[in-house]
Amino acid sequence: MLEAEHLRFTHPGATRQFDLSLVARPGEITAVSGQSGAGKSTLLDLIAGFLVPSSGRLTLDGADLLPLPPERRPISILFQSETLFEHLSAYRNVELGLPRGAADRKEKIEAALAEVGLSEVLRQRADTLSGGEKQRVALARTLLRNRPVLLLDEPFSALDDDTRAVIRMLVKSLTERHRWITLLVSHHADDVEALATRRYQLRDGMLFEG
Predict the structure, then answer these.
(1) How far, in Å, CA of 179 to CA of 98, rounded?
(2) Which of 65, 44, 68, 27 is nearest to 207 (CA)?
(3) What per-residue confidence (pLDDT) applies to 124?
(4) C or N terminus of the chain, fewer CB within 10 Å?
(5) pTM above 0.85, yes or no
(6) In CATH, which of 3.40.50.720, 3.30.110.70, 3.40.50.300, 3.40.109.10 is domain 1-74+151-210?
(7) Cα separation of 97 and 151, whole Å?
(8) CB 36 within 8 A of CB 87
(9) What is the pLDDT of residues 94-142, one digit of tens each?
């Protein structure tokens, strides 16, 4: 279980202080919605370690995450724009999710691509893939990282409606199958409606459940 307790943060030069508390559980998608500028990305940056709170607690199954730098936190992030290397194949992009020296690399990469339905394009360059296929590649890379927490930062916004529906259901299925703790921030009500097990509203620098 991921728990944030009174994570307090103020951006330099700003007057509003964030005071953020939430609970997110394995196998569930916890959604945070709020108006543009409400601080949804600030929340993710605090959890990922890109921002440092002035006080508060952040724990995963009771273990303190705050002392850990971003690269050591057991967290993967899926952004609105796919963070792929366009000149590399789908296979090579997914391979970047494996630690150096990992055994059975080929089998693991092909299995991850098969799980997201991309076996037929594993040798294609990323710049030839559709938006939905690129997000699937990013999800396959997440599978190989094998981290328990997945942060979703408006990951469906650049997709057409039909593709969004497909990728949303894939995220939901992977979350349940692998028992990820998935945290979605979105201002799209249909994303929240389709995916959320638990919901929070972010307003006035605070999170309100429901």
Answers:
(1) 19
(2) 44
(3) 92
(4) C
(5) yes
(6) 3.40.50.300
(7) 16
(8) no
(9) 998 887 777 788 899 999 999 998 888 888 999 999 888 988 898 888 8
CATH 3.40.50.300 spans which residues of the chain? 1-74+151-210
